[in-house]
Amino acid sequence: MTVNPITAGRVQSAIALASSKTGVDFDYLLGQAKIESGLNASARAGTSSASGLYQFVEQSWLAVVKKHGAEHGLGWAADSISQGAGGRYTVGDGATRQAILGLRNDPTAASLMAAEHASDNKGELEASLGRTANGTDLYMAHFLGIGGAKKFLATMAANPDTSAAALFPAAAASNRGIFYASNGQPRSLSAIYQRFADKLGAATDSANETRAANLAFASQALGMGDDATVVTGNGQSATDALDWAKQAMARFGTGSTTAGASLLRPTPDTARLAYMMLASMGG
Fold first, then answer.
1. In the chain, helix, strand, coil percent, each to 5?
2. Which pTM does this prediction carry?
C-alpha cells in the first residue's frame, strides 16, 4: 500500500513528537516503522495479532500501555488493563479492550508506546549484554520480545551459525520469510541479524531522503496561504496540507536560521508551484 505524502508527513510528525518526548532516536523509530508497516498506520499482519504502525501484538501492546499509558494521557487505558498471576494482560470490558487495541492504529499513540518500549528494552539489553545496545539490538527486542532478544543475542555471540528456526520455532512458523531462505534453508542467527541491520540502514537512508523531500514540500505548501481551496485526491483540504506543512517545518527543520527564514518566506513562484503540486494530486 502506498501512503500519500500528507498522511506520511503526519505519521512522521507523530514519530518526531514521540522522539522529542522520550529521547529515543528519531531515525531508529522511523526506520522501525518503515520496516514494520511501510508507514501504514492501518497495517495488519496475516499470521499473528500484530497491527498498526509498529505491528504490536496484543499482549505486547497491553503491557506497554499498562506501564506507560498514563504518562501520555492514556490513563483510562492503563487503568483498565490488569495482569493475571500467569503474567497475561487482560481487559475486563470487551468494548474497552477493543478501544485500547485500536490505539495501535493511531500514529501518535503507537509512536509514543514504541518509543517507550524501545527505551525500556535498551536499558534491559545493555544490562544483559554489557555493552551499548544498537538499533538492530533494539529491533530484535521488538521482534522477539526482550527475553527472546536476550536469548538470540547471547547465543549469537557464542555461536553465530546456530539455526534461528531451531532456537525460535514458534516465531519461525509465523515468519518463514525471515527465518528461511528462498530455497527453504534455515537462516543462521548472524544472517538474520545482518538482514535486519541492512534493512534498518536502508530505512535510515530513506528517512534522510524523506526529510529533505518534506522540507521542500512543506516550504512550497506554506506559500499557498490560508485561503487556498484546492482539495487533494485523498480528500484532504488545503488547510490539512498547510497544517501538515507547518508541522513538517517544525519537525524536520535543518536548524539553520538562514534556511528556515527563506523557507518560511516563499516567493510567488514557489506559491504557484505548491498550488500546482496539490492540484495535480487532486487531478
1. 70, 5, 25
2. 0.68
